[in-house]
User: Which sequence fits this backbone?
């Protein structure tokens, strides 16, 4: 029995987490859950890190966290907990698969099947900002050789292990010759060790345009942190909804799994949220800990549910063979299909 | 008679510039052209700035430059001439209209009509990079209050003058609280002076996703330099082709007009390139200098050409009412329609 740390998050977090946990339990996966406290309540209790010492302790002990989206309170200089956790736990790789579910989910891009591999610790996310004069502020973009090597090697290993054919690199080294230049250079170096995998490079502006227009061109794409943030949202959204994509944050010792979307406070408490993003994070988690059978059976049941036209409001389209359900009904349908 | 400085550029530059100049001449606009030297040849002659003193002199005298895309040679630490010119001439506003031409140009987004107003001098484009240790490199993202005020006020003035209803701001101030935070804060301040124009803010990741998926949601969008680089390429591409969009770089005294695409060396010399991007830059230029009638008649003739199904290879689709033409034939068709 493996114990997983669980954070229920804020906004729609608890609703989608409860749905996800019910599905995991029904799958027969050999896992226990240990709930930890982090997010809005913790911030507002005066702990400006947003996470309790007990939560750190639990995550470090269990080495796996399933985390619902959280809300960072506005103002007061609260630091993003997502970023704190990625950095503190050394979660260097953020993996975001974005594949079309055509014809079950409406999309303009039926053939897309892209995996964004996003560097997750460096770049402008290093969090080094300061005020130079009253009128001028700066933020430091940091890129290191070991950071580049780790993420780029991860992307190629991921491609090889998952039978992917191509790893594309995005950077903007026509402008940032040293920082993005280093990322591109190390990509070229590492790629030589993987002659079986096709390599390709795009400047990030026109690369992003290609993703938005013809995502089926791409397979695995590796890129620095901020580009990965922007382009994974684009790729997820054009599969049909940003609410459908899960995300794995992988470190040497700990891994964190989540939905790629936010806590959507505007619809919180209405029980209409789509649990699919978090559920897909959970499926990635089950594979990560070796519960491959449970992962597969959840994935199949979830797909079957979509095939049956059972949809939450965000992706529901009025249609003779579709049924609009709430969060719990969706979870029950997945469980019934298992 | 107004004199315009002209740079023919590299790659497909001379082909599309000759087509564009022929069309301007045929429009009867009261303009003369003065050719200046900048780009690849100048770089390779040993002038690492890529631009001759005579070119600076001409541009400063004429105050208006129409520039074809150029190629910066790889390696050798050549600085981007685009960036040098934007900074040296104080071209703080980069305006990039991206509207669908449905049904004449195939697009998945028939109702889009977005104008990206991109800050054009600051951000990571300030060009301040250095190596901290052999393994760590840095780039400085710079944001200033005067820089933000100028571009945000420009966006609202543009909206008012062009009868636009909404100015949206994109930033990532959940992470970059000081730099992007300042941009967002000044947006809120300036927006108060324009109560007639709707305001709205998106975090750039999910904002980019919304542009890629539902661009018809947006009207004018104002944002820092690098986001503007990425998002204007996305917006242009999903109208049908990045080859269709023009760009105005506006300063207090000088303005530069160009296509948003690059010099496409792979198809250079074949005379198949689409001159539309540069032509639309030229139309913006004619409006800028008060040649509104010529601008309008070129625009109408160009639209009519597309309506007639006369297309260069990049946007041509096999179709009973379409004809594939080369660069010169396209220009002749526009002239014939004038
Ligand atoms: C919430 C935010 C800090 C986070 C990020 O910027 O990384 C989110 O957008 C994501 O992509 O996981
Ligand atoms: C060529 C390059 C320097 C330029 C930029 O990054 O601004 C281009 O992509 C653009 O958008 O005009």
Assistant:
């Amino acid at each position: 029995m493996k114990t997983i740390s669980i954070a229920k998050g804020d906004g729609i977090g608890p609703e989608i987490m409860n749905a996800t946990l019910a599905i995991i339990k029904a799958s027969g996966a050999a896992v226990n859950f240990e709930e930890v406290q982090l997010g809005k309540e913790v911030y507002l209790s005066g702990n400006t890190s947003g996470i309790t010492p007990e939560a750190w302790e639990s995550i470090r002990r269990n080495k796996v966290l399933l985390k619902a989206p959280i809300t960072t309170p506005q103002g007061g200089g609260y630091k993003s907990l997502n970023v704190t956790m990625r950095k503190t736990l050394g979660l260097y790789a953020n993996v975001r698969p974005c594949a079309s579910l055509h014809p079950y989910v409406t999309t303009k891009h039926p053939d897309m099947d892209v995996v964004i591999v996003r560097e997750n610790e460096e770049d402008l996310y290093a969090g080094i900002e300061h005020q130079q004069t009253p009128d001028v502020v700066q933020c430091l973009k940091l890129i290191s050789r070991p950071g580049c090597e780790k993420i780029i090697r991860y992307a190629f290993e991921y491609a090889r292990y998952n039978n992917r054919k191509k790893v594309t690199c995005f950077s903007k080294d026509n402008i940032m010759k040293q920082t993005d230049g280093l990322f591109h250079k190390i990509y070229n170096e590492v790629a030589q060790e993987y002659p079986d995998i096709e390599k390709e490079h795009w400047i990030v502006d026109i690369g992003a345009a290609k993703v938005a227009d013809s995502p089926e061109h791409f397979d695995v794409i590796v890129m620095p942190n901020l580009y990965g943030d922007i382009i994974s949202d684009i790729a997820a959204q054009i599969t049909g909804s940003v609410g459908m994509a899960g995300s794995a944050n992988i470190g040497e010792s700990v891994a964190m799994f989540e939905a790629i979307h936010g806590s959507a406070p505007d619809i919180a408490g209405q029980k209409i949220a789509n649990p699919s993003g978090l559920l897909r994070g959970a499926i990635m988690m089950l594979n990560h800990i070796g519960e491959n059978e449970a992962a597969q059976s959840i994935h199949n049941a979830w797909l079957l549910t979509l095939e049956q036209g059972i949809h939450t409001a965000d992706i529901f389209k009025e249609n003779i063979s579709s049924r609009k359900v709430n969060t719990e009904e969706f979870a029950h349908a997945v469980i019934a299909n298992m």
